[in-house]
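Q: Structure tokens for this one, please.
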Amino acid sequence: MLRATTNTVNWGTLPVAPGRRICALLRVKAGWHRVSEAPSSIAGDTAGVGPSESTPARHGSLAALSLGALGVVYGDIGTSPLYALRECFSAENGLRINEANVLGVLSLMVWALIVVVCVKYVGVILRADNQGEGGVLALLSLTRAGAADRSSPRPRFMLLLAGLFGAGLLYGDSMITPAISVLSAVEGLGVATHAFDRFIIPITIAILIGLFAVQKRGTARVAAVFGPFMLVWFLTIGGLGVAAILGQHGGHTSVLAAANPLFGLNFLLREGMVGFMVLGSVVLVITGGEALYADMGHFGRPAIQTAWFVAAFPALLLNYLGQGVLLLEGGATVGNPFFEMAPSAALYPLVALATGATIIASQALISGAFSLTQGAMQLGYAPRFTVVHTSGEAHGQIYVPAVNRTLMVLCILLVLGFKESSELADAYGMAVTGTMSVTSLLFYAAARERWGWSRLRAGTVVGLFLIFDLAFLVANAVKFLEGGWVPLAIGALIFVIMTTWKRGREEVARVLEKGRLNIADFMRDVRQAKPHRVPGTAVVLTANPDGTPLVLLHHFKHNKVLHEQVVLLTLAVERQPEIPDSQRVYFQPLGDGFYRVIARFGFMEQPKVDQVLRQLAPLGLDVRRGGLTFILGRETLLPTGQSGMAKWRKQLFTLLMRNAPSATAYFEIPANQVVELGAQTAF
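A: Here is the predicted structure, written as tokens:
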């Protein structure tokens, strides 16, 4: 029994009413009014859009947005040349440096970029947007599994679990990326002199602290600086590659033959298990592919595609081929092919440029973590965190302080724990390949369910993706003990937190539902009792769109008084990213000064009570007349054996609830207008 463990929580909108239930209620149009004068058709359960449908317009020219995308989205994949080819020929893999092996590895890299990034993400997955938003949760919301619960058919429920675990792996990626990127750049100082060796870790930590400190300035301001910087970076690494190919080191245009996929296939067949193990390092060239999908809401698909094909992709190809030339000429004497490509006079400037680029590389995953957190909160899989919108024009640009602080601490711990970027590479590959595999599975479900693709069409496309995804995943799985366990542990922890939060909310809501009174019966009691009505408006937040809030019952029972106007407000989160203002707010007069108001928000929006109340004024419902009071319920949970949750999950749920921001802070309700009434609930 857990009776000794209690937790005081705010149940203003916990859980947020499900979108399907709200839509079904609003389809019964009698008595319901919409605030907007737009056409009266109800949108219903618009869970997402297909690849051919338009996405929200982004502010700014395509050139400006593409430059911003270059800085925010492609920093991660853009700095992979610092360590990718080096890791393929590391002592751990035991691969000899000769022409056949160099061309074979380069061929695998080239075709990994073409198939996984060009075809899969930039060409196909980016079209699977949910009204302009991307990422694992946005893709999950496009499938029927996005609304699944424990009673759903097993395949759909398993797909839901896979999507949540993929989201957890993306968080792991967000922690590892800043650590390995910055550390690999600072390690470039060791190419010039070993005098800096003891300062590499402190310098890396200082840079990471500075990186996370600037996140509060917002994606737009960061992109304004990062975009031009990354353009210089891509021009530089592309130029180094061209110089190596054409003759800075004697010229070796034979590396261009790596564009032939047969070199890669022959390499795998010839080297056997060693060649397969090298795939675990080849995957490093595509790190950041998932980030460009997760960050789509910040810049839009056209800008991301333009930035890739115009700048990032050609520069990466040229640099990898240039490093191949250096390996062919220097053989085993080459320790760090990226930095050794540069002339000695340019080494320190290149280290400085690489350090700046790796700082920027982390931005893609950090921004993606913010977007992922907001989506998880609104879909009911994460506690409420404070979300700061950093742009008045671009909705998707947000900053989540709690997530930012957590990522910073964990990144520093990873640097202190692994100490070298080579050690972190094993963990990095596992996080990337796991998330990519989940994305492919979710895309298959979305293509079949949302867009009506045949099994053959969807299976052919996704089968091609999985050939690469699963090969990379298995190659990294053998490195479990060398660091691959880290992202899996992080993903598992996030998965447990999300599923526990969702389950806990459902169980508590089920308990609270048992004591709920039908609104018609409550109104009858009010008419019979004829309580004193004080001036002003009481806004009662409730998750149930058709019952009587428990906090209102307690208020009426104990205080025996009501306000002249009582607004029962339900904030409903739908499975689409944004809700048009014309379909946002509905209200229904219940009589005797009572009104039912339903406000619909997308899962990428932050519900704000004040915004909803302002939209009621055009219909003559002046909620501010005579004063405004918000009545919230504060339930004290008494964990017992009543629900089916395990003891440890109840303890975790109460811990999460205890540390979640209050409804007053999250919905930006003025604290001096809030009245809280407490009650104990056995859970």
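A few notes: Residues 1-18, 36-59 have pLDDT under 50 and may be disordered. The chain has 26 helices and 13 strands.
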